[in-house]
């Protein structure tokens, strides 16, 4: 029992769906019936714990949970002694300072002597210190954006993704102090067996992410264009080239990265490719 990995995820909130989706995409099955706080995995030596996100780093530090998925903002703010083992790429957001709309702002120095409401006193404190700004930090648990309008503070420092919450509370975003995404944290004293389960899990996560970032591509092109087309399709080793029944034509199969997809498709078309099919990849083993 002690050799299984206990993985802590947020019970309900912005991280929950993507955390569970990732675990499922790694082929780990578990029954997360409504209201359940722990769920054993059916086909992996793991158990999922459903917790409040703020509590996860502490549990991982204590070894009550061995792994946890939290926002990096929470991992840094709680400052627990844990390893950040992987950046997961979802729940991207930023921690920003907002001041009442219409107020002039030149630089962070303008906050000297002001009061700032936040749920992130540690991250904010460090930022102010690094910038040699002395301001009063008011720690509040939530609904931070309301603070200036009720006279509790002159500025706020809170999580922003689109900025619409700030706007609807009459605030303007003036400074980003931290960029965050979901991270996997791990306890520092895993047994050898647990470490090897973690390595297996990380291998699966990387395969899932690589698949998401790449597409399988098939196309037809004149045989004398194969070399030109292949330049834009390095694939995992090199593209597969097969002759078509039609004389002078080939079928080329490869993998193409999402980032340079449109640019390369254009060049491939110019090189004479046609009948281009692009297909999602479920897993990609590197
Ligand atoms: P809990 O009840 O578990 O304490 P919470 O209210 O503290 O939940 P959520 O609002 O669900 O937390 O946010 C969880 C994490 O998701 C945040 O710590 C942050 O990393 C990320 N996050 C927060 N807001 C956004 C957003 N608007 N867009 C993307 N990610 C966000
Ligand atoms: Mg929380």
UniProtKB/TrEMBL annotation:
UniProt keyword list: Amino-acid biosynthesis, ATP-binding, Cytoplasm, Glycosyltransferase, Histidine biosynthesis, Magnesium, Metal-binding, Nucleotide-binding, Transferase
Domain Histidine biosynthesis HisG C-terminal: 211-283
Activity regulation comment: Feedback inhibited by histidine.
Domain ATP phosphoribosyltransferase catalytic, residue spans: 52-206
Catalytic activity: 1-(5-phospho-beta-D-ribosyl)-ATP + diphosphate = 5-phospho-alpha-D-ribose 1-diphosphate + ATP
Enzyme class: transferase
One BP annotation, GO: L-histidine biosynthetic process
Single GO MF descriptor: ATP phosphoribosyltransferase activity
Cofactor(s) of this protein: Mg(2+)
Involved pathway(s): Amino-acid biosynthesis; L-histidine biosynthesis; L-histidine from 5-phospho-alpha-D-ribose 1-diphosphate: step 1/9
Annotated GO CC locations: cytoplasm
InterPro entries on file: ATP-PRT_HisG_long (IPR020621), ATP_PRibTrfase_cat (IPR013820), ATP_PRibTrfase_CS (IPR018198), ATP_PRibTrfase_HisG (IPR001348), HisG_C (IPR013115), N-reg_PII-like_a/b (IPR011322), N-reg_PII/ATP_PRibTrfase_C (IPR015867)
Cell location: Cytoplasm
Pfam families listed in its UniProt record: HisG, HisG_C
EC number: 2.4.2.17
Job of this protein: Catalyzes the condensation of ATP and 5-phosphoribose 1-diphosphate to form N'-(5'-phosphoribosyl)-ATP (PR-ATP). Has a crucial role in the pathway because the rate of histidine biosynthesis seems to be controlled primarily by regulation of HisG enzymatic activity.
Family in the record: Belongs to the ATP phosphoribosyltransferase family. Long subfamily.
Protein name: ATP phosphoribosyltransferase
């Amino acid at each position: 029992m002690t050799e299984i990995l206990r993985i802590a995820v947020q019970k309900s909130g912005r991280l929950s769906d993507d955390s569970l989706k990732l675990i499922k995409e790694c082929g780990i099955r578990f029954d997360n019936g409504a209201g359940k706080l722990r769920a054993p995995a059916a086909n992996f030596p793991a158990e999922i714990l459903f917790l409040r996100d703020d509590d996860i780093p502490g549990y991982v530090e204590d070894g009550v949970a061995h792994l946890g998925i939290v926002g990096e903002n929470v991992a840094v703010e709680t400052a627990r002694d844990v390893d950040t083992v992987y950046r997961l790429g979802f729940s991207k957001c930023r921690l920003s300072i907002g001041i009442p709309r219409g107020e002039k702002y030149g630089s962070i120095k303008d906050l000297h002597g002001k009061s700032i409401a936040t749920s992130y006193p540690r991250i904010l404190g460090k930022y102010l210190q690094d910038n040699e700004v002395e301001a009063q930090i008011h720690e509040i648990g939530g609904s931070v954006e309301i603070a200036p309008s009720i006279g509790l503070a002159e500025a706020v420092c809170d999580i922003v993704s689109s900025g619409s919450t700030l706007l609807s509370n009459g605030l303007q975003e003036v400074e980003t102090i931290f960029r965050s995404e979901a991270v996997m944290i791990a306890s520092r004293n895993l047994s050898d067996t647990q470490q090897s389960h973690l390595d297996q899990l990380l291998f699966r996560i990387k395969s899932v992410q690589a698949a998401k970032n790449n597409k399988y591509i098939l196309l037809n092109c004149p045989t004398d264009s194969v070399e030109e087309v292949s330049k834009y399709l390095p694939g995992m080793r090199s593209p597969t080239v097969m002759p078509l029944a039609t004389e002078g034509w080939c079928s080329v199969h490869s993998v193409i990265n999402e980032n340079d997809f449109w640019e390369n498709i254009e060049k491939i078309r110019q090189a004479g490719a046609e009948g281009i099919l692009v297909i999602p990849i479920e897993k990609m083993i590197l």
